[in-house]
Every structure is written in structure tokens, then in C-alpha cells.
Specification:
This protein is an all-alpha fold. It is built from 2 helices and no strands. It has one domain. The protein starts with a helix and ends with a helix.
């Protein structure tokens, strides 16, 4: 019975770690892409809907990549 509880607790802790890493990666990816569009020389310094959608896409891809990396690591 105790082994089952330990396994369940370990699985829950792992899911929490993966979720937190995914949230952090999404925020960093989204903010990083927005900063790129806002300050990169040569681009118009206007954040439009296209830049917002691309930034959200970058955030989603970075979240997915970090979750795959964290799940595969341990």
C-alpha cells in the first residue's frame, strides 16, 4: 500500500514539475518573441496582431519543447 502511495506521489510531483517548466517556457518564449518584434533593428517598431500570433506560436513551441525535454530527462 505504501509503495502505491509513494509511486502516486512521485508521479504527481513529476507532473507538477513538467507543468511549471512548461508555463515558464511559454512565458519566456512569448515575451522573448515580443521583445524581438519590438526592438529588432529593421523591423517596424509596432506590435500588430501578426506579431502577437507569432509570439504565441513561439511560446507554444517552446512549451512543447521544454515539456518533451523534461519528460525525457527523468
Amino acid at each position: 500500500m505504501m509503495e502505491q502511495q509513494d509511486t502516486s506521489t512521485a508521479r504527481c510531483a513529476r507532473q507538477v514539475r513538467v507543468r511549471r517548466a512548461g508555463i515558464a517556457a511559454f512565458l519566456v518564449g512569448t515575451c522573448g518573441a515580443l521583445v524581438f518584434f519590438a526592438f529588432f533593428p529593421g523591423l517596424p517598431h509596432v506590435i500588430d496582431w501578426g506579431a502577437i500570433l507569432v509570439s504565441l506560436g513561439v511560446g507554444i513551441l517552446s512549451r512543447w519543447g521544454v515539456q518533451v525535454w523534461v519528460k525525457g530527462r527523468g
